[in-house]
Specification:
Length: 179
Amino acid sequence: MSASAAVPRHAHADTPAATAAELLDFAIRTAADQAVIDSLPLDPAGRTWIRLDGPAGSEAWVIGWPPGTGTGWHDHAESRGAFATARGRLTEYSLAARIPSEGWRSLELAPGVDRSRILAPGTGRAFGEHHVHEVLNDSPAEHAISVHAYHPPLPLIRRYSRTGQILTLEHIERPEDWH
């Protein structure tokens, strides 16, 4: 992959959907591409990103994470996804339980559903639909950079707040909110 990957490529309608494994492979390969990673402008105060076209019509993002920043709890609705760390280290907290995708505002989570993992440079993870997680750069001093890919392209992101075992749906973001 080269810096030209930032130029949109359009998949044909008959292209099969990208699998989670293909998204992960793309994220790891792109995270290793120094030219793509170096093309991301970094901001010491907030996250930065550039959009890429991923495999088979998926969308992808290179994201810069200043020290101490994170996503908050969220999911990617009906999209499956993957992400890989290119620089720094990211921590992912996730739920090992499938939650209903609609029809609720607040849920009490059962004990034992919390999971966490640390993703060092060159490592990544894939996930399925409705995966609830938060991703953080816990470093007090080092910027992190990662590559994320989603298929189908993100229809929405549901944002949650969490207090103890209570997960509350706060709002829904649509693509026009982040493009």
